[in-house]
Amino acid sequence: MSEPVSALGGASFTGFANVREIGPLGMVTLRAKDVAGLADAVKAVTGTALPATRRIEVAGDCACAWMSPDEYLLVVPYAQAGAAIATLNAALKGQHFLAADVSDARAVFRVEGDKAAQALAKLSPVDFAALQPGELRRTRAAQVAAAFWQQGNGYTVVCFRSVGKYVFDLLSSSAMPGSELA
Amino acid sequence: MLILECPYCGVKAEETELSPGYEAHLKRFGPGSTDEEFESYMFARKNPKGVHFERWRHAYGCGKWFLAARCTATLEVFGTYPAQSSEPPADLVAKIKAKRPDWKGYK
Amino acid sequence: MSTRLAKGGRLIDRSASQEFTFNGKRLKGYKGDTLAAALLANDQMLVGRSFKYHRPRGIVAAGPEEPNALVNLGRGGRFEPNQRTTTTELFDGLEATSQNHWPSLEYDVGVVNNYVARFLPAGFYYKTFIHPRPFWKHVFEPVIRQSAGLGKAPKDRDADRYEQAYAFCDLLVVGGGVAGLHAALVAGRSGARVIVLEQTAIWGGRAPVDAEVIDGKPAGDWVEAAVAELAAMPNVTLKIRTMGAGVYDHGYVLADEKVADHTPGDGRPKHRLWRIRAGKILTATGAIERPLSFAGNDIPGVMLAASVRDYVVNYAVSPGDRTVVVTNNDDAYRTAIALVEAGLSVPAIIDARANVTGELPAKARALGIRIEAGRGVAKVLGGKRVTGVSICLQAGEGAVVDEIACDAIAMSGGWSPVVHLYSHCGGKLVWDTVSAHFRPDAAKPPINHDGGAMVYAAGIANGAMTTAAALADADTQARAALQALGIAAKSGNVPQADIVTEAAMEAVWIMPQGAGPALKAKMWLDYQNDVKVSDVQLAAREGYESVEHTKRYTTLGMATDQGKLSNINGLAVLAQALNEDIPQVGTTTFRPPYTPVTLGALAGEARGDIFQPLRRTPIHGWHEQHAAYFEPVGLWRRPYTFPRSGETHAQAVHREVLNTRTNVGMLDASTLGKIIVKGPDAGRFLDMLYTGVMSTLPVGKCRYGLMCNEQGFLSDDGVVARIDEDTWLCHTTSGGADRIHAWMEDWLQCEWWDWKVYTANVTEQYAQVAIVGPKARQLLEKLGGMDVSREALPFMQWADGTLGGFPVRVYRISFSGELSYEIAVPASHGLAFWEACQKAGADLGVMPYGTEALHIMRAEKGFIMIGDETDGTVIPQDLNLDWAISKKKEDFLGKRGQQRNHLASPDRWKLVGFEALDGSVIPDGAYVVDAGLNANGQRNVQGRITSTYFSPTLKKGIAMGLLKHGPKRMGEVVEFGTVKNGVKGTLKARVVDPVFYDKDGEKQNV
Fold this sequence. Notes:
B: 107 residues; C: 1006 residues; alpha+beta; 25 helices
């Protein structure tokens, strides 16, 4: 089989904030609520606790994000997505849940630098001063859906794969040198 | 441009993050219903100047539908609550009655 | 003449000279000048021509209220019309040209309108050019368009970039004068998140110009200290060159930041539109001085009194050597004093008030200035420039009592608070009889989401008309806003301004009060749209009693300045004409933006490649490399065809169809919607969603399904696959995936929330490749890895496996009537899989095909296409799809709707095929005509074309369409109405079975 190819093959842009595509990452949509053994199943896959509302729990290369009251996004290395689903299927067997591989359905970017938030503040109606560390915000980036959270010296931005180029171009345009907001 | 607080995720979402779903608390009429019942379900929408109950979806957020009570004239928002509600919560109804003594109820 | 004074000028830097051009003339100004100041310094008072009469017009104001001094700025990709010189910062190399004149500013042919002005009253165009009707479009309008209009629209693509940004705060302060700064200090010191907007590049507003004294020091020093303190606060953001454009619901404010207007081409965005969400908004927007209406008040050299002061004090520019001041209030005396203190001559102050008392007049008297109390202007003398003024008794009819030579007139009719932002979102105003202006009514503010006040007006914008009162009011309003925000305000002192006692103004609207028609016809209210006192009076006489109607009839206040100078004066004239009080007549509605916002800023980043999101499949790049011609499908771009060199698109499409029918074709079907539906109630749920039964579908099998909306109309279709006991995969149309997923969630969340069903939209997880044609199986066998034989994988089944080493799910489904496999692979491997198929199929004659070949092949088979055969008014029964509608189910979405008598009628138009008798392609959308005419005299119709193509397979035109009683009329010849080159005609066609090709389905079932 071929090597997996991310939406933009690792494109990058250097501006007042730096933008680069990362991935592909392993991603699993887990839909479940009030299911016995949920926290243990997630822990087995990502090594994290089950996140509280609007939070993301990160452990090394893995993470688990709260997406809605009955939906989590599990992030693992790309090659481990299949195993992650198998683990969930085994752990939650017989209960009502849905685990779907969405590793290939996403494009993921890092926006880094002291002024990374300024690049995002041009695209999303989000008060970055009020965004907590460890908070995942699902919103809109210009005309498409996006989610991001603060991590390290910047933000990780997730969008749909088909609009990966649009979002990359948006971020690059927003990070254009000379267009700093402050 | 409105701001509504999503009762599921707590985000104070602005209108561009939401999609509208029009009147709330409609009763679905399927096969076996009379023409009048079906008409009421399908077409007979309220258009009040004042308190109104609406469906909204946090489309660019958690994806959940919720219901909102607001004044169509002043855009005052009285409250939001989950879509899994057959009728507005009692405390919300009380709050609206206190603010709008002339309000005749949601039905 | 107007000129630069030898010294002074608080805003200019005389060491930094800047060169610019006006109409090609090279001129010099200083850093800190506005373009208007620099023009005046070069004695360029005449800057434009008026809109209707092409009268010479000069600079009137010094701020955003300027109605006349609009110019074209820049050239090429940076050309901008209608730019106000009074708010344009001068920069080295600025190029400006005047507009609305021909052939030149000094000699304008259009001025002939001025001499026929009495034939061009209000409503002239409406009255004159209405008959004969066709003349308007072909004769009158082109001529009027040629001679009217402001600047020209730019021709070149905008060379600049624009952007938008979101910002959030507790308190947004609009206006950086002393009131706004003090309000910001109160809020900032209390820990609130504050944003302060100032539309100019300079903090402080009027107070420093007027030499006010605050807390014992010059206002300028106070401003400097306040700005320094605010700048040091981490919770305060200061923004200059940022105009608060509009206030909208729930604390939403748009503000236009002119980032690089004064530094064009430096790489920064030209403008940035701020989308601010504020807890509360405080408008400290000051006031705008009103002109006075007297004959000739539009002659260049007649200016607003405070603006004259601005030019003298801020830029050391004198508008004239001899300036006569005309006023109805004390404030204008400050102008006279400033002029005299600058060494200029003020021959007289003409004051409409009979009794002139107060500190400022006393000071003027002490300086030796002649004060003419109880007098008015009979007429301004001069043409392209003021040469003098004749004065009269204000109480009289205009008999001249004296004539004074002068080259400038500074007029003041009082001040109107800038209430625009307070009013945008429903805030009400009250009429203040003392100051004769509208000011915000604190009892009826615009309402916020919580039912409380959203906007607080403060300072002069709130009618607190002195610096001392404005500072006190700003303190009060800021504290009220903080309290409403739930923020404890820190106690502190209100800055104390030295009090200058001013006597009351007198509401004088025209001079002299008894002026006759001849004078009134020379009194301008709206300079930009050329509306005079006589026009408003005419409107009143003709029955336009409402100010909103008068405004539209006369165009008063409808120019780009939106009546900043003219609205109140026009309203007062209308009220007088109607013999009513001003508050009874009411004011017009204020709408955003406060001053024009360029379209570039509103578009923001959305241009060029990011004008809108384009969705790309994982194979998109391959299509681009292979010269695909794309078509939009929703936001997707899909290959329409892959033309080879020398081929037309039609030839390419035909080649693709024939090759697929004889060899093997490949289609990128990745855009197809794919939604997983899982749970104990998933079968029951899908039975409600689809017209057919999905719960009984065996695992491993596929079934075609239709979805309807609750009205019963067909909304989407696709193949459903049963994955395991409680999991289904629903395919939707390419454009329908998000909509159908949302539709599913709507029903699950809002109606059947106790049903145990989860959905996941996995459309983009998979690249999907259709391998289609008689050699499709051979191609897959060459890839190898799984059994794709007829026995192992029959029609309408699916199987997981590997092909060429790729993990795949293979669906045996067909939209072409051929042997066909749709293969889903993870998107990250989509391109590699596509290329592997291309390679494997090379000696089988494989070719990619696009959406048009797909459409033709499905039409040859009589398969319907959502959006072609359906348009939101078509039910499945119309398309003879009764076989896909369960008769057994008690309920499904749309079932009740379909039972309505109109939809159940036997007379509905139903799907059939059509073949033109001459074999041609019937025009798309053509109607089948019927006997007789309808009420509009048009032919009755009985059907229409929904899909029509030339079939390369059958070598003739084929079409599908809806026809009344269609299926019962096979073989009948019907007539279509056609229009060719504007000529109406008819085309005869035979009604046939819509399945044109391989009626028994032998080709797909091999």
